[in-house]
Amino acid sequence: MDLGDVMNELYNSFNKYFEIVIADTPQLLEQVYKIRYQVLCVEQRIPGFEPSQFPDQQEKDDDDAHSMHALLKFRSTDEYIGTVRLILFNPEQPQKLFPVELNTQLDLDLCDVDRLPRQHTAEVSRFVVINRFNRRKENRRRGDSQPSADGKETEERRTTDRRSGLTIALVLMAGVMRMSVQHNVRYWLSMVDTPLKRLLGFDGVELIPIGPPVNYHGMRRPYIVRVEEILQSMYKDHHDAWQVLTDAGKYDLLSNQKMLN
Q1: What confidence score (pLDDT) does residue 4 get?
Q2: Are the C-beta atoms of residues 241 and 13 closer than 8 Å to each other?
Q3: Average pLDDT score, the chain
Q4: Which CA distances in Å does 259 have to 56, 72, 194, 249?
């Protein structure tokens, strides 16, 4: 196998197994809310997401009104298996805080969020995958495997090595990338648990901590991603993952910025 084959392996798997669908219709949004209900309220039973709170079996909150949502479709069965949300800056409520600002303890020495350009900042949240495609639960117990595109697991290499196989986490982040390009989002805020942070890091999506861990729907830590920086780094050091994240450059924020300028 030559270098070109290696560099394209993840991207080929991405196109073979998955389709990213932006939920921009009432019907697609209903699918988003139903998946969130299924994962958060039924499968994971996370405190604060009791099923009785959502009699219509659709998990929603006030942030959905000013968010974009992406669905992940598994091509072989034509079913939606996951979703992710990007909470956008609301120009009609410019002082409104993101959930990460409300529910964590941000360290100003690590990042002064108040100095970020709010119109180019968004929060990644409701990062969910239905149970039979989600191996992060096993990862928490063992710490020795990762999810792959076909639902199988691969043995962990040393942390200095790349992992083999396409992760669902990277594919969902490709959905985030598409929404970010559409709204010129250059900074991602998030509250993430350790397994997800580790998975994304192996593909070059480096999350920078901006505060201590907090118990918010489980132990999570606040992070920031400077999108332009990770795109540059991934293009050089994790080019195969960059291809997935940007759909081979179609949704590269840097390229879109050059076109706008």
Answers
A1: 43
A2: no
A3: 86
A4: 44, 28, 36, 13
> Are 29 and 23 a contacting pair, CB within 8 Å?
yes
How close are the terminal C-alpha atoms of the chain, in Å? 40
Distance of CA 80 to the CA centre of its chain: 16
- The full length of the chain comes to 261
With 0-12 / 13-18 / 19 or more C-beta atoms within 10 angstroms meaning exposed / middle / buried, residue 217 is middle
Average pLDDT over residues 177-185: 97
List Cβ neighbours of 144 (8 Å cut-off, separation of 6 or more): 155, 156
Residue 36, pLDDT score: 98
Q: What is the 3-state secondary structure (H, E, C) of 58-70?
A: CCCCHHHHHEEEE
Q: Which domains does the chain have, with CATH numbers?
A: 3-260 (3.40.630.30)
Question: Distance between CA atoms of 188 and 253, rounded to whole angstroms?
Answer: 13
Above 60 in pLDDT, residue 138? no
pLDDT for the residue numbered 202? 93
146, 202 contact by CB (below 8 A): yes
Please tell me the predicted confidence (pLDDT) of residue 135: 59
Q: Report how far residue 144's alpha carbon sits from residue 139's, in angstroms, rounded to the nearest whole number.
A: 6
- Copy the structure tokens of residue 195: 């397994």
